[in-house]
Amino acid sequence: MKKTSKHIIKILVITFLLFPKASFSQNTFFNDSHIRINYLHGFLLPEYGFVSYLTNNNITAFEFDVYKELYGNKLWQRVYKYPSIGISFIHTSLGNDDVFGNATAVNPYIRFNLLNKQKIKIEYNLGVGLTYVSKKFDFDSNYKNIAVGSHFNIWLNTELTASYLIYKNISLTAGTVFNHLSNANLEEPNIGLNLWDFMLGIDAQIGKSTEKNVEPVPVFKDKNQFAFILAGANKHTRRFAEKTYFAASLSFEYKRILGHKVSLGSGADLFYDSSVPDEMFKEEITNIKDLYKYKTGIHFSQELLIGKLSLGIQEGFYILLTDKLNHHKMYNRGIIRYKISDHFFVNMAMKSNIVVLDVMEIGLGYYWN
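The structure corresponding to this sequence follows.
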């Protein structure tokens, strides 16, 4: 990791020096654009005892970040007081080079302004990306790594940062960062790793600033919305088996859109999980029925609306067709949606039974008002 870190520092510094603001002064494509280089230092959060047992070093990471400030040409940008969108490239150790190896992540994100004064900014990031982990679980060569079962994993990022303008277009940045990586139960094991870092960095604007659109945000009239969502997935069981199983869901949702930012709602779900009979057989459960592949439930939802994008969470309860395998009473989802037309959206959801991730669903939804 030390040799790799030295090379990364050299590359980042050279890149930073090769992007002076003057080079782009005539190119509107780079207006409102920034590059940011960060150094991160932290540790693995000991969610499970084995993480503490196996961790033998702190985490060090380097991040190269390219982002663009939005100037309010769309309504949602003015609603959220001119956020930024960007993509970061991260290389990090994972607390034990021999067992966990290191990770390299690509992380698209949105950054919200919490405070934006003349020289001081306080911002909050939300990002979802993809990461490659150099070492994964292997029965023969790496049996201790029961956290990560695949090289490719989902990368979840959130951070709180502050920056201070020190000279024209140059700012110093500092903050705290939380990252999570796991493979959404596509491979086993899938406990995942949680990283908490403290960050120091430098930020440079590489293009001109566009004058902000200050058109007033119109008053929003609350309205109802309805939707059907059909989703599917492949999943592994938690027995280190190679076999994958098909899972699916059909959901009906009602929500009340309360403004430009928030909606609340409820709905009903039908779940299908083809792994249940095999899992019940392995648990030596008798009188297994095909009907046990199905579960039904009702849920409540809260959603953050960001233009065509929305981020939601759901809390659900199994009723009628309940969980005959693990006897879970509740389920929950974290959801990302994007509207692709006036009536259709794509849907990605992480479905869990309280804290145990069950499946990652990919689906299509139809909505109407």
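Confidence is low (pLDDT under 50) at residues 15-26.
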